[in-house]
Amino acid sequence: MDEGMNDDAKSRAAHAALNELPENGIIGLGTGSTVKFFVDALADVVRGGRNLTGVCTSEATRRHAAELGIPLLEDAGPWAIEVTVDGADEVADDRSLSKGAGGALTREKIVAYASKRLVIICDAGKRVVRIGEKRPVALEVLAFGFRQTMARLGAFGKPTLRDGARTDAGNLLVDLAIAPLDDPAKLDGELRSIPGIVETGLFLARSPVVYVAHEGRVERMG
Ligand code: 5RP
Q: What are 81-109's pLDDT values in tens digits?
């Protein structure tokens, strides 16, 4: 898929997600290039008079949404979020997700798990049978003792520190290359038990609705 077709697919998935919005209420805003198209579309809906307010999963999304005049809530919460719309790096057949290539995984997980519903938008390149087929698992890691943490991660796969990258919270990002996962929940539990791992990019418990843009059509999963 070339860049133009890819943008077209992202835009079509983003517009399909507008069907999932309530008339009024609080919307979780994910992070990434596909979500940018959704935020643009949401701004049009808000300009049209709907009373929709956003909760942002990153400073990048906050800047973009604020520029477009979307009303936004403070980061501290609590929020009564009707639906969150976010992207993904991998979507498996059972709608489990791998996220975090954009580095916002922890905030995205907090917002997704605070939402009544989660809607994922992506192009067909993100579809896999099992998590781990195309992308490493993203991890947010504390800077303190990170070489110790990386050494422990070596038992699960090949960890790579994302050079110079920091999350909005100032933590490090590590990509853990692994074989495709038969039991992602097991790996998630083991990774989360390592001191120094702030969060994993495995989103396993939300049964999202997923809009996947193929050439010429958008598929709704879930
Ligand atoms: C950021 C994410 C993004 O949602 C994910 O990386 C997809 O991004 P894009 O739409 O740019 O492919 O998880 O942490």
A: 999 999 999 999 999 999 999 999 999 99
Residue where the block lists tokens 């997704």: 112
DSSP 53-81: EEEESSHHHHHHHHHTT--B--TT----E
- Which ligand 1 atom is at minimum distance from the Cα of 126? 12
**Residue whose structure tokens are 């193929």:** 214
**CA 36 to ligand 1 center in whole angstroms:** 10
Check if 108 is active-site: yes
Which residues touch 36 (CB under 8 Å, ≥6 apart)?
Answer: 64
Q: Would you list the DSSP string of 124-146?
A: GGGB-SSTTSSSPEEEEE-STTH
Residue 208 above 60 pLDDT? yes
Going by C-alpha positions, the residue among 58, 32, 22, 60 that lies closest to residue 42 is 22
* Gap from CA of 74 to ligand 1 centroid (Å): 22
- Beta bridge partners, 56, equal 29
pLDDT digits (tens, 9 = 90+) for 45-73: 999 999 999 999 999 999 999 999 999 99
Question: Against a cut of 0.85, is the pTM above it?
Answer: yes
From 7, 8, 31, 84, the mutation candidate for ligand 1 (largest count of ligand atoms within 8 A of CB) is 31
Task: Calculate the CA 186 to chain-centre distance.
Answer: 20
Ligand 1 pocket by C-beta < 6 Å: which residues?
30-34, 86-89, 99-105, 108
C-alpha of residue 140 to centroid of ligand 1, in Å: 14
